Amino acid sequence: MCKVLGINRSTYYKVANKVDSARTIENQKLDADILAIYFATKRRYGAPKIHHELLNQGWNISLKRVQRRMAELGIHSIVIKKYRHYSSNKRVTEKDNILNQDFTASGINQKWCTDITYIHTQKDGWTYLASVMDLYSRKIIGWAYDINMSAELAIKAVKNACLNVSNPEGIVLQSDLGTQYTSDIFERFLAGKKIRHSYSRKGCPYDNACIESFHSLIKKEEIYRHVYKDSKEAYDSIFEYIESWYYHQRTHSSLDYKTPAAVHAECAA
């Protein structure tokens, strides 16, 4: 056969009896663990978070090696086009910005932020998600979903957040200058709860960056990956993402790779 193929016998036996190196075997095991984490997180984790999970599993490897292995495997986290803010010439009355981009807190239920985002469905058209985040634990402490974008939707999200607090008095709530948040009904509700309302400046989404980031995240990791038939299907998807994945499973580098549930529980204890 070697004569027919025109190769040396030594070359044939070297290839036929080849034994994988220790590095190759280790890479095969590493690839298997990387893929297990990648698909367990529904392809949401990128190299930094996968690297941290591998360290927790006992691997002693660098981030760059994880990045190389992921490139070899042809996998990466979900990416979307980066948001670019464009200013508006619409005149809006400025209100007090108590938070002033200070997103730090020494404990839970000191500072919250809230916003509304759009979700499209085939049957019901545009639907709306209002979320309230605790800035210490990054927990979505309250949320509401509806086919109408109204002040009542914004209030419902904050009401749901208040269910988790014995006394919301003194909490600072950051929102933008949308009509839902500047409405009399919303202001009266906050005043009744003695919640201090802080407003983002006109055309400055960075004043409410944390909740803007969460809405970008849920769209990237969940909403943009589906075409929803109706609002019920969208609601079920949102519920699973927030209440199961985001709260209990998704780690955050800003929380020292802990979940919002873990941080919230530690502070509440």
Detailed description of the structure:
Helix 3 packs across helix 5 (63-73). The chain has a five-stranded mixed β-sheet, with helices on both faces. It is built from eleven helices and five strands; from the N terminus they run αααααβββαβααβααα. It has two domains: 2-73, no CATH class; 111-268, Nucleotidyltransferase, domain 5, CATH 3.30.420.10. With 269 residues, it is α/β, with parallel strands linked by helices. The termini are far apart. The model has no long low-confidence stretch (mean pLDDT 89). InterPro entries: HTH-like_dom (IPR025948), Integrase_cat-core (IPR001584), RNaseH-like_sf (IPR012337), RNaseH_sf (IPR036397), Transpos_IS3 (IPR048020), Transposase_IS3/IS150/IS904 (IPR050900). One of its GO terms (molecular function) is nucleic acid binding.
What is the C-level CATH assignment of the largest domain? Alpha Beta
Kindly state the number of beta strands: 5
CATH superfamily of the largest domain: Ribonuclease H-like superfamily/Ribonuclease H
What order do the helices and strands follow?
A: HHHHHEEEHEHHEHHH
Domain Integrase catalytic: 103-268
Protein name: Transposase InsO and inactivated derivatives
Function: Involved in the transposition of the insertion sequence.
GO molecular function: nucleic acid binding
